[in-house]
Amino acid sequence: xxxxSPQADRPADSLQLLRDEFRQHLExxxxxxxLAPPYHTVERAVAHLTAQLKSLEPAERDRIAGDPGLxxxxxxxxxxxxxxxxxxxxxxxxxxxxSLFTDLPQEYMHFLDTFPHSP
Length: 119
Description:
This protein is an all-alpha fold. The protein has one domain. It is built from seven helices and no strands. It has helices spanning 6-9, 15-32, 39-54, 58-66, 68-81, 89-98, 109-112. α2 packs antiparallel against α3 (39-54), α3 crosses α5 and α4 crosses α5 (68-81). The radius of gyration is 16 Å and the shape is elongated.
């Protein structure tokens, strides 16, 4: 029987957990808006998040993974730095102005508030 260390059970210092969750949130965000996600830019956003997190110490990544506020700050930063807030901006700005979406989960406001709100 092979004995596993406690670190072996941690998903790559939380990196994979955060990446997977971010990707899932992006897919859900665009699904809620009934828009096809801009796939290349989504991949760029995941790459930005990965680079951001890899530059941190494992303990800091674990702290981010355990704190929703810090996690969403990193997700929002990767969203903006990748240019996702520039894709579909006219459509999304129109949705914001018209308030056509009322069932958008509150946490997605972290993404939504990066889009222009005025015509």
